[in-house]
Amino acid sequence: MDTSAVYQKPTEEEVKTLLTERFPEVEVTGTEARRVFAKLPREKVREVCQYIHDNLSFEHCSTVIGVDYVDHLTVVYHLSNYWNGLMIELSADIPNDDPHVDSVTCIWEGVNWHERETWELFGIVFDGHPKLERLLTPQTYEFFPFRKSYKLRGQE
Questions:
Q1: Which of these, 68, 70, 63, lies nearest to 89 by C-alpha position?
Q2: Contact present, 111 and 119 (Cβ < 8 Å)
Q3: Residue-wise pLDDT tens digits, 26-75
Q4: Would you say the pTM of this structure is higher than 0.70?
Q5: The CATH number of 12-127 is which of 1.10.340.30, 3.20.20.80, 3.30.460.80, 3.40.50.720?
């Protein structure tokens, strides 16, 4: 197979360098083969994602998930570059008392469903989302079932 025609840029190291030079507040926590792991402040999520999409050719966001660490929440994005098989895992910590982060549906429209599900199960509000409403649970639910603070009936 002739691999000379395969687009190989940006590499893990180039992504790391480009992100940290352009956004000093982004902390690249690690790299491995075809993977870059980074943490960023929630206020920079949309700006960093727009840069990654427009300048580094990450044309797909495969998942947006929430994580409850009891003292804070985290939102995690998995972004893929189809040309070189590279994936970036971005994570942003969200305080429990102000669970807001900017929506990235304006960058990747498919994120719409991921953000809705994450809001519904964890209570992370995606500001600017076009239709943040429940998908899986009844409209009458006033709690978020994947939060560690949620107790099932009969559990004490």
A1: 63
A2: no
A3: 999 999 999 999 999 999 999 999 999 999 999 999 999 999 999 999 99
A4: yes
A5: 3.30.460.80
